[in-house]
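Handout, page 2. Input:
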Amino acid sequence: MNSRFGQRLDAVRARLESFGIDGLYVTGEANVTYLTGKSGKDCALWITEQDAFILTDFRYMEMAMELQGLFAYREVKVGRDACDFFLSMGKIRIGVEKNHLSLSEYLTFLDRMDADRIVPVEGLIERLREVKDALELEATQRACAIADACFLHMCRFLKPGISERTAALEIEFFMKSNGADALSFDTICVSGANTSYPHGIPGNKTIETGDFVTMDYGCKVDGYCSDMTRTVAVGRADEEMKAVYELVLLAQRTACAGIRAGMRCEDVDRLARDVISDAGYGDCFGHGLGHGTGLEIHEAPRLRPGSLEELKENQIVSIEPGIYLPKKFGVRIEDLATVTPFGIINFVSASKDLMIL
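Output:
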C-alpha cells in the first residue's frame, strides 16, 4: 500500500520545480486522501523534495501515526497554526492550492509573511488524479454495482402515491444497506413536471400515473464515486414522452459507441449533441454531456462544448445527455464508464430501454 502512495508522492515532488515552489501545502480534502489513503478531513500536507508531513490535531493523531514511513506527523491545527509552522522554515516559496485554501488562512499568510512567498497553485494534484489505477477502477465498479442493484429495487418500489422525498430516502437507504460507505452527492428523485429541472430537489410531490420519474444518484466505495441516472414512466407514457425518451436514448448510445481515448472533449460532447440538435431539441440540452469522477463526483475531464482537452486512457467519465421541456417533463439517461483506446468499458449494466412500471 505504501508503495502506491509513495509513487503518488514522488509524482507530486517531480512537479514542484515546474510550479516554481519549494513545497506544496495541500489542503484539498480529496487531494489529502489521494496522497495518504486516509480521510482528508481537518488534515493538510506539506510536501517538499526531501520531506513530507501530515498536519493535523490530536483528534487524528493516531490515524496520522499510521502513515509513518511515508509522512511525518506534526500536531498543527489546520487553519490556525499552519502559519507558525511555515514561519519556522525560513524564506521558502510555499505553493498553496488555489481552489482549496480558505480565504481566511490565505489572508493570515499575507498578513504574517512576505507576499512573494505565497504562490497560488492550481491543478497540480488534480491532474494526477485524472487517470485511475486498477484499484481505483475496481472501487468505482463496486460502487456502480450497488447503484445498479438499487435501480432494480426502485423499479419494484415506485408506484403512485409515493412522494419524491420518500423515494429518494429509499434510494439512499438501499445503497447504504448494501455496502455503500457514503453518498456521492445529494440524491435526485423527481417526478412529473419536476423532471424538467436537471438538478431537481425531491419534495413532497407524490408520484402520479403518467409521470416520468428521474433518479440521479450514486454512492462511494473506498472513497470512489458512482453516478447513474435512469428515467422511468409510471403506469403509462404518452407519445411525446416516448419520442423524447427514444431520442435521448439514441443520443446516449451514440456517444457510448463513439468515445475513444485521444478524442477532444468537445467532440465527445458533439456525438450526443448533434443527435439531439438535428431533431430540433438543441435548446433543451443545456448542460455538458458528462464529467470525470473519482474521489469527488465532479472531476476533470469535462465533456462539454469548447473543451479542447483530450480524453486519456483510464479516465472515468459520465455520459448523460438530456432533454428538458419546461412545465412538462425531462429525460436524462446516464452511465459511468472508463475510457480506453478502443472505446469505453461501461460500469453500469441497468437497462436503458424505456420502462413503464
